[in-house]
Amino acid sequence: xxxxxxxxxxxxxxxxxxITPPQSYGVYLGGIILVYALSFYAGTLKPKHVPAAxxxxxxxxxxx
Length: 64
Hints:
Order of helices and strands: HH
Largest sheet: none
């Protein structure tokens, strides 16, 4: 019963297809390109600028 050769999980079928030799080279290359593109995109993002705090003045001695 556990060895049913009928319907398989689509994710498992995709993984089995992706690890066969001709496709695995393309999957590896696609992964490298995806990581490069995402890291390049993240590097081009500009950080949000917070408004500058007002300048702090040093306290002065009381005048008598």
